[in-house]
Amino acid sequence: MIEATLCFPLRGHDAEIDCEVLLIEKRRGLGEGWYNGPGGKCEPGETPRECAIRETREEVGLEVTDLEKAGELTFLLDDEGHTVCHVYRTRSFDGQPTSSEEAHPEWVSVGNVPYDQMWADDRLWLPGVLEGKTVVGEFRFEGGEPLDEAEFVDHDLEWDVSL
Ligand SMILES: Nc1nc2c([nH]c(=O)n2[C@H]2C[C@H](O)[C@@H](COP(=O)(O)OP(=O)(O)OP(=O)(O)O)O2)c(=O)[nH]1
């Protein structure tokens, strides 16, 4: 199974109207053209936390620290494990988000996340993650590779788990 990560940097107050999340518009690869958090596949020998920090640096030039584990998501494609994705959030970072070949960063109000331009499952778990909850989820897709062209058919979520 592919091991991957997502990191959601947050800034502002906890109240929904004030708080913003750094999303990227993905410019290539899986999920191209959609919004997501910075992240990507783990390299050999790398921990998911190290991967999330590296991917955020490579994609948007931000040095994130104090990552809090917020979720563990398993994506099944045609009943086989395809990707396990480790989800982090953080309020600690240095630098200014900068566009790269892979990603165009954008601060978005957490009440205004463009779920209609994201993976179909994100509206089910990302709001809770941005509110500070933890989640373990399983998401079933059907229709063959690539995952981002398969159909999202079913899910199972457990909240407030210890990760
Ligand atoms: N928000 C969200 N992200 C997902 C879903 N499924 C899924 O693989 N991802 C994430 C995990 C990874 O961060 C990212 C895919 O990895 P990636 O960005 O490295 O993919 P890529 O094909 O561009 O890889 P690369 O060749 O550039 O290394 O998409 C999903 O359903 N929702």
TrEMBL record:
Cofactor(s) of this protein? Mg(2+)
Q: Which InterPro entries match?
A: 8ODP (IPR003563), Nudix_hydrolase (IPR020476), NUDIX_hydrolase-like_dom_sf (IPR015797), NUDIX_hydrolase_CS (IPR020084), NUDIX_hydrolase_dom (IPR000086)
Q: Which residues form the Nudix hydrolase domain?
A: 1-131
What Gene Ontology terms describe where this protein resides (cellular component)?
A: cytoplasm
TM region(s), chain numbering: none
Give the molecular function GO annotations.
Answer: dATP diphosphatase activity; metal ion binding; RNA binding
Q: State which Enzyme Commission number(s) the record gives.
A: 3.6.1.56
Q: Which Gene3D superfamilies match?
A: Nucleoside Triphosphate Pyrophosphohydrolase
Q: Where in the cell is it found?
A: Cytoplasm
Q: Which UniProt keywords apply?
A: Cytoplasm, Hydrolase, Magnesium, Metal-binding, RNA-binding
Quick check: keyword Cytoplasm in the entry? yes
UniProt entry tagged with the keyword Lyase: no
Catalytic activity entry: 8-oxo-dATP + H2O = 8-oxo-dAMP + diphosphate + H(+); 2-oxo-ATP + H2O = 2-oxo-AMP + diphosphate + H(+); N(6)-methyl-dATP + H2O = N(6)-methyl-dAMP + diphosphate + H(+); 8-oxo-dGTP + H2O = 8-oxo-dGMP + diphosphate + H(+)
Q: How does it assemble?
A: Monomer.
- Role played: Oxidized purine nucleoside triphosphate hydrolase which is a prominent sanitizer of the oxidized nucleotide pool. Catalyzes the hydrolysis of 2-oxo-dATP (2-hydroxy-dATP) into 2-oxo-dAMP. Also has a significant hydrolase activity toward 2-oxo-ATP, 8-oxo-dGTP and 8-oxo-dATP. Through the hydrolysis of oxidized purine nucleoside triphosphates, prevents their incorporation into DNA and the subsequent transversions A:T to C:G and G:C to T:A. Also catalyzes the hydrolysis of methylated purine nucleoside triphosphate preventing their integration into DNA.
Q: Which family does it belong to?
A: Belongs to the Nudix hydrolase family.
Put simply, this protein is called Oxidized purine nucleoside triphosphate hydrolase
What is the organism field in this record? Natrinema soli
